[in-house]
Amino acid sequence: MKNMLRPAAVLFVALTVVTGIVYPAVVTAIAQAAFRHQANGSLVERDGKAVGSELIGQPFDAPRYFWGRPSATTPHPYDAGNSGGSNLGPTNPALADAVKSRIAALRAADPANDAPVPVDLVTASGSGLDPGISLAAAAYQASRVARARHMPIAQVEALVAQAASARQLGVLGEPTVNVLKLNLALDRANVR
């Protein structure tokens, strides 16, 4: 028994040092050297202060801002410590009621807009934290934002186009717009 305990203890200590200290230190060093922005949370700064992350949505509800996808996190929207979807299926009456109330809120915020409401403005993502919206969702909101900021619609649309990101690797997913970055660009272009 003694002959078996010593190698087991040595192996335990060696693996603890390798997997608990050496490996994390090497990965952290590589991440900080090669991917500093991502390794530190992909923070977005304004005037030298962090105002959010590129990876986690934020609630915007003023008419002068673009609004993101609804968040499924509770009790606070976009709570990264409580990530998760609503788990409501397409036939669930609670989901249908939530979508109807979200559509009503969008219509109330912009009564002149009779375009179809893009699905990503009324349904939460699987994580409840999506930072981006589709180009259709941005286009749907552009006239409301332009009116609220007293800006030409063409200027708002140009900011949306500048903020749009392409498909990943040119083929994966759809182009999106990071809502936080777009709203910060709007603030820089028009301070009203």
Structure description:
By secondary structure, the protein is mainly alpha-helical. It has two domains: 1-40; 42-189, no CATH class. It contains six helices and five strands; from the N terminus they run H-H-E-E-H-E-H-H-E-E-H. The chain has a three-stranded antiparallel sheet with strand order 3-5-4. A two-stranded antiparallel ribbon has the order 1-2. Helix 4 (135-149) packs antiparallel against helix 5 (153-163) and helix 5 crosses helix 6 (179-189). The longest helix has 33 residues, at 2-34. The protein is elongated and about 80 Å long.
Short structural description:
The protein is mainly alpha-helical and about 190 residues long.
SSE map:
Layout: H1 2-34, H2 36-39, E1 43-46, E2 49-53, H3 93-109, E3 132-134, H4 135-149, H5 153-163, E4 164-165, E5 176-178, H6 179-189
Antiparallel strand pairs: 1-2, 3-5, 4-5
